[in-house]
Amino acid sequence: MHKSLSWKVLPARNRKKFTIFILTVTLFVLIVYLAMGIYWAFFSLIILLGSLFQFYTVTEYILDDDGITIKRPFYSVRKKWEEFRRVEETRSGIFLSPFSQPSRLDSFRGVHLIIDEDRKTEVLEFIRDKIKDDDKRTD
Fold first, then answer.
1. Among 8, 60, 65, 123, which has the highest number of CB atoms less than 10 A from its own CB?
2. pTM to 2 decimals?
3. Fold annotation for 58-134
């Protein structure tokens, strides 16, 4: 039986977070403008918006029997279940790590799936069914 789950996330949809985002970006660019001039302010705006791209664009997550696909506007990433060893529930979603124990490299090598609270249990059960405990693996 082939089962899959999919959902789309737009973090900027949350009005409180979006308001804080706009105020922070505006204040930062204004400070750079006053201190350095218009060209540096424009440059800092481009860098800031580029680094926060995931916040104001739609991300689609697709989980199937083979792995996870993360689709963003300009690219998509495919990861197989075999690449992950640890599953952790976070405040805003689910974190998947290739390490069986917490590591400093988690934020670079792991994948954080942003998910609404109402679907978290369903997705967590699906993922835990695919990622077995590291002690039981024969890799």
1. 123
2. 0.78
3. PH-domain like (2.30.29)
